[in-house]
Write a structure and sequence with these properties.
Two copies of one chain form a homodimer.
Chain A: H1 6-12, E1 37-43, H2 61-65, H3 69-77, E2 79-85, H4 90-99, H5 103-106, E3 126-127, E4 136-137, E5 146-147, H6 151-157, E6 161-166, E7 187-189, H7 233-251, E8 255-260, H8 275-280, H9 285-310, E9 317-323, H10 355-358, E10 359-365, E11 374-381, H11 385-392, H12 410-414, E12 424-429, E13 443-448, E14 451-456, E15 462-466, H13 482-498, E16 505-506
Parallel strand pairs in A: 1-8, 1-9, 2-11, 4-5, 6-7, 6-8
Antiparallel strand pairs in A: 2-10, 3-16, 9-10, 12-13, 13-14, 14-15
Helix pairs in contact in A: 3-9, 7-9
């Protein structure tokens, strides 16, 4: 094991501690307040505007187009976060979530699938870094892997019953971390190495032949009971999650449900429970399919909320809603409309460090703690879930193999403080995704206060946006504010070096690209 | 959580420690010796003589009847233990194994299945204690449950990949501990709450209808791929275990495989790969079925040994063979021959505190550490596996919720000492099993040096045997050795009170039965 991060973890997070004078199960002493159940509902590839719930200051045409009544219901009972960030790519986000590390540190910056295989598109001019394409893990032993401690394991060890449902995507195939049980989940429904799915359709056995053989590395495992039954994958996962909750209810433990839908990742199959309605509304087939996937996801959200209410658990359950990166906007094969506009007013989409790729719809419901119908405009980051969820669970002392970069957003929930004050958020993407587009590939970025700086490794180009005034990142004001550019470049460069981040190199010279504060 | 046992654990076991100054994963620092894989091969209801490998000083007719070439092979490469003890009942043994606690302490003294239901047969004269019929758990929250720390969880947290295959039987249905993943197993093949099986036959889908509905609480889960394929359950489990080992090999972690066969528990289905041979040898149908189950289990043992050799892991793997209680001898419906004789020279069988119920065939193979073809006549107890396996894995510092009663038998393996010197072993069975017979029901026992005292709660009767001279426990020498009876009664009574053991009460008076040193 690598001990070197322990002190760092301690110094960065007031929650981390080397001392552990309790028993192996770090539960609070009996008699303390009952610990809440926690449901983290994570949607895949859902954009900031893919909902009827307006996260912007005004309602957009997308808010009119999509129907997500249960997101509205959840927001009415909780707090909406209008500046919640994830990474630009699923693996990066999920690895930050499970380890609490920023993506520049854990180096799982592009998407993972097969062991020892990079998924970067090749470049004629640039050598890409040897990033962690095997994902994250709790154990040493596999190359190109970041080793961290799972907050789920900490929850489990503190007495939580832990349930995984849906997409896992933490470790490449044939690495220990491919199985959600490696991360401390006691129940695994349909999770494995893949970050996508072969099919939502039970008619296709979610990507299996009639004989049960997978047709793809992305065939969904574990849903055999629903093959050929006409059950859309989103629904099948929801029913399995409800079964797991029924069981959890009997266990008399607090539970943590990680409801990580495969929806609304491609293939954009039609969820026929909702598709016809959107066609009647005049949407194109592609748009209607997309809208049907969203409403199917929203129905699942409602089903889980219903379960809590019916079972008397609503008041004692924290419910968090989040997405893992921006909506897909770079692939005309799947999406109608002008490419890179489908997250408007945000620019670009999945894969981009522009807001369209990283700003997410986030809601937190917590009766008695979070004010119903409230709204928070402070920024938070995906790795912040790590310390926050542990704090919610009353797990105050824990050890981690690597440092926790996330900062608890509990003060925002309680209205007792602003942890984003003076804080910078950082993204690193020294990779090349499968698609091109605005803000996509070979870049890094920093957000601080109103400002965001995006730096492109290959060209040395720097873009500065005032996010508060220009949410669409249409006006690069770098020339007008050289001081801000200098300041943010320095902070970004220092952070990237501090966490031992990676950067590409020029094929022509073999030299590494400069850090943002070196040009 | 209950902190009170921590200091006790510390004082009882030199391995337990409150201090934990390493990271969450307690792996030894890099550069230390490679940690061995560990396979614990636990057979169900297998008696001491149910093998062609002679564990006694002489070969018995049973050794001639049964054929277990792979046990002979394993013993030839390792150490046979001729006085290895378990409890008289499966649940008690398995709960001691997983928590390290003696059965008098954990109070899972009879067998478990359904939540909040005792399995004791009722008595006209005795009130039975409210024992832990919900089993053991790692968390609080369920009544009638002993809370302990799983050594498997400690292995996992130290970096081991952990695989469960077969019978689990730790927690009753609908308790958290029913699922092997609760105990720290990352892979669960076919394990659940039940301690038995509906059927070994794939033709019966191991106890499921054609529609896949379980026909019993003991239907084996998770073997759907083998339904209708003509694969005996023992073989199906073995093939799944081999698949899990193939996967484990890729993970580059040491692995722990808990191969806990359902064999040779009733129903005594015929394993047709071996049954005809035994019929030809002249055995009755029942005897031949029993022998076929044993040889099927032995074939599985050989398959795992073959896997290790083919995969270059034999030299770096500790292989332990054990059974969970004595052979079934109290049920003429299943067994031919005179009841209670089928473990001869041992008296009685499963359920009994006589040797036939508790003495087990045990073998340990560990190249480079354990002398091949060696034999150890010192006694060891089922809870001793707990500290021993952790010591084998190099896990030196760990915390446990309850005390570890087991004592490492590493000195016996290495030939460096005798931990059984001056040690007493204790069993408690204040219950009534489904069957009667010699040494069965409402008793407790102590073994020390050559002596064994059995005390019967209802009658106050005490039996003293010199096990070394009278392995068949035919000669009660209590009257001839009142001093020994007094000494052992005192030690037994003191131990039972110390661990807060349970005892029955008389219905007539409502009074608890006296402890053995009170009469």
């Amino acid at each position: 094991m690598d001990y070197k991060y322990l002190l760092t973890a301690l110094s960065l997070s007031p929650l981390a501690s080397l001392a552990n004078d309790g028993p192996a199960t770090d539960a609070p002493p009996a008699g303390e307040q009952k610990r809440p159940n926690i449901i983290l509902f994570l949607v895949d590839d859902m954009g900031w505007q893919d909902t009827s719930l307006p996260f912007w200051t005004q309602k957009t045409p997308y808010n009119e187009m999509y129907e997500t009544p249960n997101m509205e219901r959840l927001a009415g009972q909780g707090m909406m976060f209008t500046q919640a960030y994830a990474c630009n790519i699923s693996s990066a986000t999920r690895c930050s979530l499970i380890t609490g590390a920023n993506n520049a540190r854990h180096r799982v910056t592009n998407w993972t699938l097969e062991r020892d295989k990079t998924t970067d598109r090749k470049s004629e001019t640039m050598d890409l870094p040897d990033w962690n394409y095997n994902g994250v893990s709790q154990v040493e032993g596999i190359s190109n892997t970041y080793v961290g401690t799972s907050f789920v394991d900490l929850l489990r060890r503190s007495g939580y019953h832990t349930i995984h449902c849906g997409k896992a995507h933490w470790g490449a195939i044939d690495t220990p971390a491919e199985n959600p049980t490696h991360w401390g989940f006691e129940v695994n429904i349909a999770g494995h190495a893949a970050g996508g799915l072969a099919s939502y359709l039970s008619e296709r056995n979610y990507g299996h032949t009639r004989d049960g053989k997978p047709t793809s590395l992305m065939s969904i495992p574990g849903l055999e009971d629903y093959w050929g039954t006409g059950t859309f994958a989103t629904e099948a996962l929801t029913r399995e999650a409800v079964k797991a909750l029924d069981k959890a209810k009997k266990y008399n433990q607090p539970f943590f449900l990680y409801m990580a839908h495969y929806a609304i990742h491609v293939p954009l199959d039609k969820d026929m429970r909702f598709f016809p309605k959107y066609v009647r509304k005049g949407l194109s087939d592609k748009d209607a399919a997309y809208a049907s996937l969203i409403e199917g996801m929203d129905k699942s959200l409602g089903d889980l909320m219903d379960w809590l209410e019916k079972n008397g658990e609503a008041d004692n359950t924290v419910f968090l809603f989040m997405s893992d990166n921006g909506g897909l906007a770079a692939e005309p094969y799947w999406r109608d409309g002008v490419p890179h506009t489908q997250n408007a007013p945000l620019n670009s989409g999945k894969g981009s460090l522009y807001e369209g790729g990283i700003r997410e719809p986030m809601i937190v419901r917590w009766p008695g703690v979070v004010k119903p119908g409230s709204r928070c405009d402070k920024y938070v980051m995906i790795e912040d879930f790590y310390p926050t969820l542990l704090e919610m669970a009353g797990v105050e002392k824990y050890e981690t193999t690597g440092p926790v970069d996330g900062v608890s957003f509990m003060p925002l929930l309680k209205g007792t403080g602003d942890p984003s004050e003076g804080r910078a958020l950082v993204w690193n993407f020294p990779n090349i995704w499968g698609n091109d587009g605005p803000g996509i590939n070979l870049n890094c970025a920093i957000r601080k206060d109103d400002w965001k700086l995006v730096y492109y490794y290959e060209t040395g180009r720097k873009e500065l946006f005032n996010i508060t005034e220009d949410i669409s990142e249409k006006r690069n004001v770098a020339e007008a504010h050289p001081d801000v550019v200098r300041r943010l470049s320095k902070e970004l460069g220092q952070y990237l070096r501090k966490v031992d981040a990676q950067r590409p190199a020029f094929k022509a010279t073999g030299k590494l690209c400069p850090w943002p504060d070196e040009v």
